[in-house]
Amino acid sequence: MALYGCDAITFSDPRDALLAITADPTGFDALITDHTMPGLSGVELALHVRDIRPGLPIVLTSGFLTPDNRRSAEVAGVDTIVPKPCSMEDLATAALALLADGGRGSTAPA
Fold first, then answer.
1. Whole-angstrom Cα distance, residue 89 to residue 91?
2. Domain interval for residue 45
3. For the segment 36-49, what is each residue's pLDDT rounded down to a tens digit?
C-alpha cells in the first residue's frame, strides 16, 4: 500500500511485524506502532526492534499514555509519540520527519 510517497506494509499482529523485521532488518525504513496491541505492546516491539535494528525510526501512537508509559517508551528507543486521535497524515508526517532528521527524533508529546 503506497501512502504519502511511502510503501507501507501492515501487520495485524505485532509478532508478525517483529518476524518480518527480524527476517529483513534493512528492508524497513521506519516502524509505526500502537502502544496497546494483543500479544506484544508497542513498547515491547520497540525494544525488540532496537536489538535488531538500532537506528530504525520508531513512532508510537496511543490514546492514553501514563508518565510511566512515556518513560518506558523513551527507554525502549521510541523516537516520537503521536497521540490519538490521529490521522494517517499525522503518522506519516511524524515518520517522514524522523527520516528527514536522520532517523532520530524526540519522545516529546506531539
1. 5
2. 2-100
3. 999 999 999 999 99
**CB of 45 within 8 A of CB of 33?**
yes
Spatial separation of the C-alpha atoms in residues 69 and 7, rounded to whole Å? 29
With respect to residue 19, please indicate whether it lies within any of the assigned structural domains: yes
- CATH of residue 81's domain is 3.40.50.2300
Is 106 inside any structural domain?
no
Q: Per-residue pLDDT tens for 58-74?
A: 999 999 999 999 999 99
How far is 50 from 45, CA to CA, in rounded Å? 9
Report the C-alpha gap between 3 and 89 in whole angstroms. Answer: 9
Amino acid at 49: V
CA distance 25 to 3: 21
Are the beta carbons of 36 and 65 closer than 8 angstroms? no
Domain count along the chain: 1
Residue listed under C-alpha cell 508478525: 16
* Whole-prediction pTM: 0.88
